Amino acid sequence: MSQTAASYVSKYNIAARIFHWVGAALIVAAVVIINQGEEFISLHKSVGFSFLIWTVLRLINRFVSAAPSPVAMSKLQHGLSVAVHGLLYVAMLAMPLTGLLASMAFGYGVNVFGVLPIAGFATPNDELGSMMMNLHKNLIWPALLALVAAHILAALYHQFVMKDKLLSRML
Ligand code: HEM
Ligand code: HEM
């Protein structure tokens, strides 16, 4: 792939940029809300479900429109960025999916913002519910946090050490 001056600073398209930052805001909102206590679980589920739909639309946009070619960096760094972005997408899908499946398996379902009811299992399966909730809280969540931390550190490294304007591609 040739690295022209233009592609060096080219941006993600406007849709990708909006998907990125609104997605980040939805994750923060989902977590802030669940930490307010039990009475906010329903709102947590609604925001989390919105994040799932948002992420699916984002992935469709990602597949139908080209991402800008990567900025110049070592093979190792590029490999790491592809791996972390890929794992981020996996965790971004797994997080709401495990929450949704847990709620469904316990028989509760979700009523998204009070307007889109998604039924729970007619015959609850507590074992499946506990398994999904355990993944939601104790595996996917810490993994997502670690990936986001690595992702932000990488962005800071590009900004302040490599000074390669990578951040501006997403702004
Ligand atoms: C962006 C997506 C989501 C994120 C980042 C997220 C994050 C979290 C976190 C960090 C907790 C643990 C709270 C604690 O242990 O104090 C939690 C709990 C929970 N989440 Fe999610 N969640 C998401 C989506 C969903 C969805 C879509 C559902 C269901 C439809 C859901 C249902 C639940 C439930 C039922 C709990 C347990 C609440 C409790 O009784 O303590 N989550 N979530
Ligand atoms: C302060 C917080 C954040 C900053 C500064 C930031 C910055 C960036 C930048 C600069 C890129 C483009 C990388 C490139 O050009 O190769 C990017 C891509 C990406 N970011 Fe973030 N990000 C932040 C938070 C998040 C969060 C919270 C998530 C998800 C939970 C996320 C998920 C992603 C994903 C999946 C990509 C890959 C886009 C693609 O190529 O499809 N980011 N981010």
TrEMBL record:
Membrane topology: Multi-pass membrane protein
Primary localisation category: membrane
Record-level Gene Ontology MF annotations: electron transfer activity; heme binding; metal ion binding
Domain Cytochrome b561 bacterial/Ni-hydrogenase per the UniProt entry, residue ranges: 12-171
Cofactor requirements of the protein: heme b
GO CC terms: plasma membrane
Protein name from the UniProt record: [NiFe]-hydrogenase II apoprotein, large subunit
